[in-house]
C-alpha cells in the first residue's frame, strides 16, 4: 500500500469516469421516432451512432495523455455496472482501438442481457420503472474514484462525465442529490452531456454545484465533435478556456412524499425534507408540525 | 499612581458603567438616588469634557451635600440633595428610590420598604417580600399631595388619589421627604399642563406612537443613534422611512429589537482581569529617617495575593476574625515578605521558630504544591522536554524582573522560602489566565476572601481525579498509537434522526412509483406501445450494428463545421456577460449606477414588506393607518421600478427585467392581499371591535 506522501500529484493525468445511459425504452422510442420522420435526425441519434461516438471519444481521451485513465459505467433501468477500465491493461499497452471497441461492445451486450434478466426476475410491473438509475451509477463512479485516491501511485485529476438520454427520474432525487454533494465534497466535477429530448434538472444542478460543464448539444449527429471539443479538456486547461455555460439552472427540487418536481413547497424545519403539501408529521424524521393557525376572520367569514 | 484604600471613598466612576446610569448610595440614609447620565450632562458643563473622562460624584461625609468633581479638578457643590435634584431640568426627570415606611393610617407603625418614583408611576416595595402592601400606581391617578411641616414630629408625605383614598409615607429625615415631595410636585405640575392638551388632539392614533417614541430614555436614544452611525444601510432606511413619515420611530425599531439588545449585552459583558504584572511589586517604601518600612496594600493587591497564594488565603480565613485583626495579619505577611526579600535565611529561620504564624508565610505553600503535583500528572506524556533544551535563557538570573524568590538554589536543604522564579512566573500566569470571577469593587477584604472560597469550590468540583486519570490515559494511547494499525477515526457528529431509513430510501420510492403511474408524470414522451422485450432487442441489434459499422462515419466534415460554428456562436454570445468566475452574480454585469439603485430599492421593499405583512390581521385603527401608509410607499416604489425597467439601455434590459420581476411580484402579492382584505372589510362593514373603515 502506498502512503499518501509518496503519491504523485499530477495535474495533467485525468481520470474520467463516463456514465452512459442504456435505457432501452428511450433508445427504442427515439429510434422509432427517427423512423417516423427524417427531419428528426438532428434531434435524436441512433444508439449505434451514440456508441461509436462515445467509444471514439474514450479512445481520444486515452490518447491525450499516457497516464489518462478512462472508466465506463453503464446505467440501466434495473442495474448499473462497470463496462470498461483502461487502467486494468495499462501494462501491456492500451491495445488497439478496435480491440478496445469490441471489448466495450461485448461487455455492453452482456450488461444489457443481465439487465433484461434482472428486470424479469424482479417481475416489475412493465412500464413502471422506466427511468435510468443515474444515482446508482454516480455512486459507482464516486466509489471508484475514492478507490483510486486511496491506492495506486498516481493521484489523478478525477471527473465524471454523464451522458444522459432519458429524462430525470424524480424518485431518485434524494439519492442523486446526495451523490452530487459527495462529489462536491471530494472535489469531483460532474460534466453532463444530455442527448435526450429535454434538459435534465438534476444534471444541471450536478454540474452547477460541482463546477462541471453542462451541455445539451443541439446537433446530435455531431455528438463526437461536441464531446471532443468540450468534454475532452482536462481540469487544468479548463482554467484557460471558455467552455459553454448554460443560461440558467433549474433548481427545482422533488418533494419527498410524491416525488413530484415542485416550485414551492413545505420544508421540515428539523431535517429539511421537502413536501408538496402540508403534513402533520415529517415522514423522514418524525417531527410533529404545529397546526397552521386558522385565521379567525376568514373562519367567521365562512359562517356568515 | 494613586491607589485608593478599600474604605476611603465611595466615588463611582460615571462613564461606562451602568450604561451611563448613575446609582449613588447616600451615605447617611440608606436610600439611593439615581440620575440618568443625560441628566448630569445637562448641568452646566460643556458636554464633551464630561463625556471624555470620568466624573466623580463624591458625597461628603455626614452632610447632605453633593459635590460633583470634574476632571479639571473644578467642582460643583450642592448644599442639599434637593438642590441637586432641582437643578436637573424638569423634562429630564429621573427616578428616585428612597427608603420609607408605608402607613395605612397615621397611628400605625407602618411597613418598611423602598419607595420608587419614576416619571409616570410610583411603586412601593416592602423589604419583607411576604408582607402585603406592594403596590404600583400611576401618577395620573394622583389628585394632590400633602406633607407635614419641616421640624414637626414625623416626616410624612400623603399622596391623595382621584378615586379617594391616600397613601401615607413616613420618611427617616425631612431632607429625604423633601426630595420626594418636590418630585411629586413636579410630576403633578407636568401632568396637569399636558392633560388638557391631550384632549384637544382629534386623532389619537397618530400622536400616540410619536409620543411614546419621545419618551425613550436618553441612553436608549443614544444606543439607537450609535447603531445608525455604525450601519450606513440602516441609516439610509431610517432616513427613507422614518424621516418621511412612512414608518414611525417605534415601528422602525420594533423589528430590530435584537440589534438593540445586542448593544446592551455588549456593554455589560467586559470585565477587567488581573493585572499581568507580577505581585512582587508591592515594594516597601522606606523613609530614610526612621527604621520603619511601609507597605501599601490595596484591595486589588489583596485580591491578587489571595488568588496567587492559596495558603495565605487559607490562613486569612483561619485567623482573621478570631485570632487576630486583619491589620495584624497583613503586618505579619509583610514582615515575612520582607524577610523573604532580603534573603536573610538565618533570620527568617529564627523568626519562624519563634512565631508560628509568621512561619506560615515562609513555608512552602502546600496547597500550591498539591496543585502542581496534580498538574504534572496532567502533562501530556509525549511532551518533548528536550525540544527547548538549547534555549538556555533559563540560566540568566532574574530577567530583570523584580522578584523576591531566591536566586541561588544551592542550599536546597533549606525548607523555607524555596520559591524559584519560574515557579512564581508559572503561578502568576495561571492565575491571570484563570481570570477573575469576582469584582473587588466592594472593597471589603472579608468579602473578597469569601468570594475566593466560592470560586474555588466551583472549580474544584469539576476536577474529579478519576475522569482526569482516564482522560490522560486515553490521551497517551492516542499519542502512542501507530496510525496504520488503526482504522480511520470517526468524527463526532450528531446524526440526523431518521425514523426508518428503509422508509426513507426504499419504500418512499415504491410509493412514488405508484403515484407516478397515476399521474403519468415522467415518461410522457415515450411511446408505451413498445414493449420491454422489443426495446431490449433493439438495443442488442444496435450494439451489433455498432460492431459492424466501426468508426467510419464518425466525423462528417459538414456536421463538424456546424458544431464548431454553433459552439463558437454560443460562446461569443454569452462571453459578454460571463466573467471569468462563473459564480459572479448577475448584478456585477450591470452598470454600477443601476446596480446600486436596484439594491437600494430592494432593501426598501424588503423593509416595507416586512412591516406590511406583520400588520396583518388588521385589528386596530392604528394598524389600518400603518398599512395604508406602507401601501402608498410601495406604490411609489412600484412606479419607480417600472420606470427603471423601461428607461434602461437595451444591453442590460433583460438582466434588469430578471432582477426587477421578483420585486414586482412580491409587491403585487402585497397589493393583492391588501385588496382582498379591503374587500372583505367593506363587505363586512363594521369590525367587531368597533373599528370603522375610514374613507
UniProtKB/TrEMBL annotation, chain A:
It holds the Pfam family Tfb4. Transmembrane segments: none annotated. Keywords: DNA damage, DNA repair, Metal-binding, Nucleus, Transcription, Transcription regulation, Zinc, Zinc-finger. GO terms for cellular component: transcription factor TFIIH core complex; transcription factor TFIIH holo complex. It comes from the Eukaryota. InterPro entries: TFIIH_Tfb4/GTF2H3, vWFA_dom_sf. GO terms for biological process: nucleotide-excision repair; regulation of DNA-templated transcription. Component of the 7-subunit TFIIH core complex composed of XPB, XPD, TFB1/GTF2H1, GTF2H2/P44, TFB4/GTF2H3, TFB2/GTF2H4 and TFB5/GTF2H5, which is active in NER. The core complex associates with the 3-subunit CDK-activating kinase (CAK) module composed of CYCH1/cyclin H1, CDKD and MAT1/At4g30820 to form the 10-subunit holoenzyme (holo-TFIIH) active in transcription. This is General transcription and DNA repair factor IIH subunit TFB4. It comes from Vanilla planifolia (Vanilla).
From TrEMBL, chain B:
PROSITE patterns: BSD. Its main location: nucleus. Belongs to the TFB1 family. This is BSD domain-containing protein. Residues 398-417 are annotated as: Disordered. It comes from Vanilla planifolia (Vanilla). Keywords: Nucleus, Repeat, Transcription, Transcription regulation. One of its GO terms (cellular component) is transcription factor TFIIH core complex.
Amino acid at each position: 500500500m502506498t502512503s499518501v506522501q509518496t503519491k504523485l500529484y499530477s495535474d495533467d493525468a485525468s481520470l474520467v469516469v463516463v456514465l452512459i445511459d442504456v435505457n432501452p425504452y428511450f433508445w427504442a422510442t427515439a429510434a422509432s421516432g427517427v423512423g417516423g420522420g427524417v427531419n428528426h435526425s438532428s434531434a435524436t441519434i441512433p444508439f449505434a451512432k451514440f456508441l461509436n461516438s462515445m467509444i471514439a471519444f474514450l479512445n481520444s481521451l486515452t490518447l491525450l495523455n499516457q497516464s489518462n485513465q478512462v472508466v465506463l459505467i453503464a446505467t440501466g433501468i434495473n442495474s448499473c455496472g462497470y463496462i470498461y477500465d483502461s487502467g486494468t491493461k495499462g501494462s501491456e499497452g492500451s491495445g488497439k482501438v478496435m480491440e478496445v471497441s469490441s471489448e466495450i461492445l461485448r461487455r455492453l451486450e452482456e450488461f444489457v442481457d443481465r439487465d433484461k434478466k434482472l428486470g424479469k426476475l424482479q417481475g416489475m410491473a412493465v412500464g413502471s420503472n422506466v427511468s435510468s438509475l443515474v444515482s446508482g451509477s454516480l455512486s459507482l463512479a464516486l466509489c471508484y474514484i475514492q478507490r483510486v485516491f486511496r491506492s495506486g501511485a498516481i493521484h489523478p485529476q478525477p471527473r465524471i462525465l454523464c451522458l444522459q438520454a432519458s429524462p430525470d427520474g424524480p424518485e431518485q432525487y434524494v439519492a442523486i442529490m446526495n451523490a452530487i454533494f459527495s462529489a462536491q465534497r471530494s472535489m469531483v466535477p460532474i460534466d453532463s452531456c444530455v442527448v435526450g429530448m429535454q434538459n435534465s434538472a438534476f444534471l444541471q444542478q450536478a454540474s452547477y454545484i460541482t463546477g462541471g460543464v453542462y451541455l445539451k448539444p443541439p446537433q446530435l449527429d455531431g455528438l463526437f465533435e461536441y464531446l471532443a471539443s468540450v468534454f475532452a479538456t482536462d481540469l487544468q486547461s479548463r482554467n484557460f478556456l471558455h467552455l459553454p455555460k448554460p443560461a440558467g439552472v433549474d433548481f427545482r427540487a422533488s418533494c419527498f412524499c410524491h416525488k413530484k418536481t415542485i416550485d414551492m413547497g413545505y420544508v421540515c424545519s428539523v431535517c429539511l425534507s421537502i413536501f408538496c403539501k402540508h403534513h402533520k408529521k415529517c415522514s423522514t424524521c418524525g417531527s410533529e408540525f404545529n397546526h397552521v393557525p386558522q385565521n379567525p376572520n376568514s373562519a367567521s367569514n365562512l359562517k356568515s | 499612581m494613586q491607589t485608593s484604600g478599600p474604605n476611603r471613598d465611595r466615588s463611582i466612576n460615571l462613564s461606562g458603567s451602568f450604561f451611563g446610569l448613575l446609582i449613588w448610595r447616600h451615605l447617611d440614609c440608606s436610600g439611593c438616588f439615581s440620575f440618568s447620565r443625560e441628566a448630569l450632562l445637562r448641568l452646566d458643563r460643556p458636554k464633551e469634557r464630561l463625556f471624555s473622562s470620568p466624573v466623580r460624584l463624591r458625597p461628603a461625609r455626614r452632610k447632605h451635600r453633593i459635590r460633583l468633581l470634574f476632571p479639571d479638578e473644578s467642582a460643583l457643590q450642592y448644599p442639599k440633595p434637593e438642590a441637586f435634584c432641582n437643578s436637573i431640568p424638569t423634562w429630564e426627570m429621573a427616578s428616585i428610590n428612597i427608603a420609607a415606611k408605608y402607613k395605612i393610617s397615621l397611628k400605625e407603625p407602618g411597613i418598611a420598604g423602598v419607595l420608587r418614583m419614576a416619571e409616570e408611576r410610583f411603586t412601593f416595595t416592602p423589604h419583607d417580600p411576604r408582607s402585603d402592601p406592594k403596590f404600583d400606581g400611576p401618577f395620573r391617578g394622583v389628585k394632590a399631595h400633602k406633607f407635614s411641616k419641616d421640624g414637626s414630629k414625623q416626616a410624612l408625605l400623603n399622596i391623595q388619589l382621584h378615586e379617594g383614598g391616600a397613601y401615607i409615607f413616613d420618611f427617616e429625615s425631612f431632607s429625604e421627604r423633601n426630595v420626594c415631595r418636590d418630585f411629586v410636585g413636579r410630576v403633578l405640575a407636568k401632568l396637569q399642563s399636558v392633560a388638557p392638551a391631550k384632549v384637544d388632539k382629534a386623532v389619537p392614533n397618530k400622536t400616540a406612537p410619536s409620543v411614546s417614541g419621545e419618551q425613550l430614555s436618553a441612553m436608549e436614544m443614544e444606543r439607537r443613534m450609535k447603531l445608525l452611525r455604525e450601519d450606513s444601510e440602516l441609516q439610509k432606511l431610517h432616513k427613507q422611512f422614518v424621516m418621511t413619515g412612512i414608518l414611525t420611530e417605534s415601528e422602525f425599531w420594533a423589528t430590530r429589537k435584537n440589534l438593540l439588545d445586542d448593544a446592551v449585552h455588549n456593554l455589560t459583558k467586559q470585565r477587567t482581569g488581573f493585572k499581568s504584572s507580577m505581585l512582587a511589586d508591592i515594594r516597601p517604601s522606606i523613609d530614610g529617617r526612621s527604621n520603619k518600612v511601609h507597605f501599601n496594600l490595596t484591595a486589588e493587591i489583596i485580591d491578587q495575593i489571595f488568588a496567587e497564594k492559596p495558603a495565605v488565603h487559607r490562613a486569612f480565613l483561619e485567623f482573621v476574625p478570631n485570632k487576630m485583626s486583619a491589620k495584624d495579619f497583613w503586618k505579619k505577611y509583610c514582615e515575612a515578605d520582607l524577610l523573604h526579600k532580603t534573603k536573610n535565611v538565618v533570620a527568617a529561620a529564627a523568626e519562624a521558630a519563634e512565631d508560628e504564624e509568621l512561619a506560615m508565610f515562609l513555608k512552602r505553600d502546600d496547597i500550591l504544591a498539591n496543585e502542581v503535583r496534580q498538574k504534572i500528572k496532567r502533562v501530556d506524556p509525549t511532551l518533548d522536554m528536550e525540544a527547548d533544551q538549547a534555549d538556555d535563557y533559563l540560566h540568566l538570573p532574574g530577567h530583570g524582573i523584580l522578584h523576591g524568590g531566591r536566586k541561588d538554589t544551592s542550599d536546597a536543604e533549606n525548607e523555607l522560602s524555596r520559591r524559584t522564579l519560574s515557579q512564581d512566573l508559572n503561578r502568576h500566569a495561571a492565575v491571570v489566565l484563570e481570570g477573575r470571577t469576582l469584582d473587588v469593587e466592594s472593597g471589603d477584604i472579608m468579602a473578597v476572601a469569601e468570594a475566593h472560597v466560592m470560586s474555588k469550590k466551583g472549580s474544584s468540583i469539576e476536577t474529579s481525579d478519576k475522569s482526569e486519570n482516564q482522560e490522560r490515559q486515553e490521551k497517551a494511547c492516542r499519542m502512542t498509537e501507530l496510525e496504520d494499525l488503526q482504522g480511520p477515526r470517526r468524527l463526532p457528529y450528531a446524526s440526523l434522526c431518521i425514523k426508518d431509513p428503509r422508509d426513507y430510501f426504499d419504500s418512499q420510492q415504491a410509493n412514488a412509483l405508484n403515484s407516478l403511474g397515476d399521474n403519468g408524470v415522467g415518461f410522457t414522451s415515450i411511446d408505451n406501445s413498445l414493449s420491454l422485450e422489443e426495446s431490449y432487442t433493439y438495443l442488442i441489434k444496435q450494439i451489433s450494428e455498432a460492431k459492424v459499422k466501426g468508426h467510419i462515419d464518425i466525423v462528417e466534415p459538414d456536421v463538424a463545421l456546424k458544431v464548431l460554428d454553433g459552439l463558437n456562436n454560443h460562446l461569443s454570445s454569452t462571453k459578454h456577460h460571463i466573467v471569468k468566475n462563473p459564480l459572479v452574480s448577475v448584478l456585477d454585469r450591470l452598470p454600477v449606477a443601476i446596480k446600486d439603485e436596484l439594491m437600494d430599492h430592494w432593501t426598501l421593499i424588503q423593509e416595507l414588506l416586512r412591516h406590511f405583512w406583520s400588520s396583518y390581521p388588521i385589528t386596530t385603527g392604528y394598524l389600518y393607518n400603518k398599512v395604508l401608509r406602507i401601501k402608498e410607499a410601495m406604490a411609489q416604489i412600484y412606479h419607480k421600478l417600472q420606470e427603471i425597467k423601461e428607461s434602461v439601455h437595451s444591453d442590460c434590459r433583460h438582466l434588469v427585467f430578471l432582477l426587477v420581476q421578483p420585486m414586482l411580484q412580491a409587491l403585487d402579492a402585497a397589493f393583492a392581499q391588501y385588496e382582498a382584505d379591503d374587500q372583505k372589510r367593506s363587505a363586512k362593514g363594521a369590525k367587531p371591535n368597533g373599528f370603522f373603515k375610514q374613507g
